[in-house]
Amino acid sequence: MTTEQRTSIHGQWSTRMAFILAATGSAVGLGNIWKFPYIAGENGGGAFVLVYLCCIAAIGVPIMMAEVMLGRRGRQSPINTMATLATEEGRPQFWSLLGWMGVLAGFLILSYYSVIAGWALSYVFRTASGMFVGATADGVGSIFSQFIASAESLLAWHTIFMVATMIIVARGVQHGLEKAVRYLMPLLFILLVILVFYSMTTGYFSEGLVFLFTADFSKITTGSILIAMGHAFFTLSLGMGAIMVYGSYLPKDTSIAKASMIIASADTVVALLAGMVIFPIVFANGLEPGAGPGLIFKTLPIAFGQMDAGVLIGTLFFILLVFAAWTSAISLIEPAVAWLVENKSMNRIYASVWIGIATWFMGIGTVLSFNIGSNVKWLDKTFFDLLDNLTANIMLPLGGLFIAIFAGWLMREQSSRDELASTEKGYVIWQILVRYVSPVAVMIVFLNAIGVF
Description:
The chain has 453 residues and is mainly α. It has helices at 16-27, 30-42, 46-74, 78-88, 96-128, 137-149, 151-170, 173-199, 205-213, 222-234, 242-247, 256-284, 294-306, 310-343, 348-369, 383-410, 413-420, 424-449. It is 76% helix and 0% strand.
């Protein structure tokens, strides 16, 4: 079968915009809402944003183009795609391990991501009920501590989130994934814009913009650059099979380069808008902007409990978090579901249930990491910390590195030219970046993450 004749048995996106919304949904997650604004503010504001944008252009977009290209050329799950392409390009079959690593990384990430997303889902209802109205810092901290100390509560919200994710994925590409992102992504942007307008009324909007965008190049260090490089890679969901499997559903006439640049731009815009929402609220209430992940569940609820219309604004904020988590979750489970459908003769419903149950069981380890199992450690890390470190610091960088090597060095030039369908200048720039710049940058990030330097 030629690549022109090859089609995905799972269907394909009805339009380019459907793919862009889905891939952007995969990229936009919990990290965009709190991590990017926080690290930007702490590492030079506008100066860091400039460094980050350069990293997106030199590392993120080229590897995203490569991953989408591999997916569309193979038209299968990442595992089968890499096996097929290795054969076609005359390369050893062990390259299918790249697909296995991506699928496994997505599975492991979702197992703990679902637990954290369950926290956000719980806080939608907690905030809407007025639980934080008039609460002190100690009160809000106590609410959070009691919540994560209850394994039963965490398990219940983890279960609800996983079931919701499985239902969407079970419905297929156009009826499930596409319909979900067609509504969730526009709603996410609308919620962000509404919250930005609210932040403008706090009286501290300008302080928030100064914190986020003032270029302080004195704060740009080697560490800052490494943080920008790492976040540029991880924020686009690269190396976990999600972008590759979404690429396998991409129509042939869609420009991979244009779509990748739009996705990267949208992902960055969401992160910046989130900063414009969070920091004016933080400054207006005299809170600590450097609270990291605690900002969401320990710090912002104090502000929501004290501000006018705080119940409404707080509820909208946590709904926004849930939407961001949900669009990422469906992309994380899809590669494994696609493989079961292709290799085990399952329909999508059964495949989604099996993978969903397996992910749910794995998530129990993360649930227990925050309460009765918090003292159970390996290498001085809880189960949750181990999974997070293994995936974020080892599996994803290696996946991105090998994607760049295969697409840039091992695929025949005619194969990549055929898929990218770019101008001569555009193709040469992509080839230089994916062959030389991206692999070196990802390797530096990887070595830094594992403590080599």
